[in-house]
Amino acid sequence: MSDDGADAGHGPPTESLEYLYENAPCGYLSLKPDGRIFKVNLTFAKWIGFTPDELVGRRLHDLLNIAGRIFYETHFAPLLRMQGFFNEVALDLVTREGRQLPVLVNATEKRDGEGRHLFTRLTAFNATDRRRYERELVEARAAAEAAQRELQARNAKVRNELLAEQAILLDERATAALREEFIAVLGHDLRNPLAAINAGMRLLLGTPLDDKAKLIVGMVQDSTTRMAGLIDNVMDFARGRLGGGLDVERNVAEPIEPVLRQVVSELQIAMPGRVIETDFTLTEPVHCDRRRIGQLASNLLGNALTHGAPDKPVKIGATTSDGWFELFVANAGEPIPPVVLQRIFEPFSRGTLAPGLQGLGLGLFISHEIAKAHGGTLEVVSTEAETRFTFRMPL
Amino acid sequence: MAALTRNNVQVRGTGDRAMVFAHGFGCDQNMWRFVAPAFETEFKTVLFDHVGAGGSDLSAYEPAKYASLSGYAEDLVEIGAELGLKDAVFVGHSVSAMIGLLASLQAPELFESLVLVGPSPRYIDGGDYVGGFSETQIDELLDFLSQNYLGWSAAMAPAIMGNPERPELGAELTNSFCRTDPEIAKAFARVTFKSDNRADLAKVTKRALVLQCSEDIIAPTQVGEYVHRNMPGSELVLMRATGHCPNLSAPEETIAAIRAFV
Predict the structure, then answer these.
(1) Is B154 a domain residue?
(2) Interchain contact, B151 vs A90, CB within 8 Å
(3) How would DSSP label each residue in B197-217?
């Protein structure tokens, strides 16, 4: 006989029921109705490090961890009483050394002819690997559920963002409609009275006037022209700043030079005492909005005449070369202070001039917007020698 | 009759007085299958499932409401109101002993007396109080529940269904156990084992019977004695029956004790 009681001889293998009971590859337990062990096989006892004799008289609870005890009492014991058996119950046995041994347990109640409970038989299977696998499955399921919840949360977030964006879009459309209306009203309501004043002045000029009256009419006309320019600026600002963007109608067919010359001549007429030097070398067509570029040139030249040294010439030049259109306006005089230079293209950014010379502070902002709308740049360099604004755009 | 449907209420028996049976954590009204029929000739017996257990309406489960035992007590009061119960006998097992106690405080006219089977006002030890478990052990249990429900909810069902000798029992239990939502069971376990109703014991003015089993690891004898000591006008009966479920393991002794009390 070997250690485990098997016949180690060379004849045909033999089995006895007693041997099978003690050494079967599963644990056998018999419990009295009060849950105490009255018979247990060697396999089970060995698994948890006891001898069968040591286990007799102990309760099954005593071999379980706390959680297993509670679970057994609240779930499996009632189930066993009600249906007389249970299968595949997962329990953790606690070994003599305090380790946990995961097992799967089947149980049946032995009852007498009148249904009285005589004892309970339990069969336990070592299920370490299976239980580990099941635990991994549970964890995997928990992870999958967490991932699904995360996904749902993200979907909900995206959906909400989409709805919010749609709402913003609708809101923006409403704002855009309102803006257009505002600009139209602004243009109409401000320009009409101005036009009436202008027409009145022209009528006055057609009547006999003394010199003083003629002078006053000329001043009023200058003022209305200036006022019209300011209204244009305010409207452009409203369009640009309120989100509609400057409207630019680019056209390559018409030449730009006549527009620039027109600007120069208008300003020369307005300020006859000043010297304006021009230098235009335009050999290629410029894909631009001629009205807007004219507006830009007029703003820059007007500024230069206003702010530059009155006894020095103002220079304006334009070239086309290497795929670029470049326009500059330069004047002599006090350099622009760095503090002003920093914010010079921002709206309502005005220098430190006498109040009478100040505009709304929108001219350079609008010019800068025009440059941007053409995919170009407007830059300024201001030194003791000169202050130079340069506009560049691709042809 | 919303509560009657929600809690799968079953009314049987004849009698002027009603006896309401409430099941504990881990099972459903089937817990009373060996006990309740004995009272059907003298009492109108009322059995029900807590929301989340047995044939209850799982969709009625509201985490906030059932985050404390008083949510379950509210259900019990509603059942009583819908059935027009007055001065009934309440028989509650395990955690339902405390649920019935809370219901009797919410609606004093509902129960004339309380039978508390294996009650525990507090499962966790603290200070001089012995509840039977440490905080850590209860946390281990809750962890075990979440780890073990794969084996429980999925693997148990076919085993129960495959009972060839008593198919009616199989179907009954299958319906009961399979439909127990593991998530709800986990939450119920947390509410049950973390509850503390010690302060409520002294408020009870009804007659009460404490049925205490021998060798009950869920509600040890000291706990039954604590309940008895702190509940004025209560009787304590120490049963020969072992374990936590005398209603299943020793129905005759349980029936006799209840009968002697009522």
Answers:
(1) no
(2) yes
(3) -HHHHTT--SEEEEEEEET-S
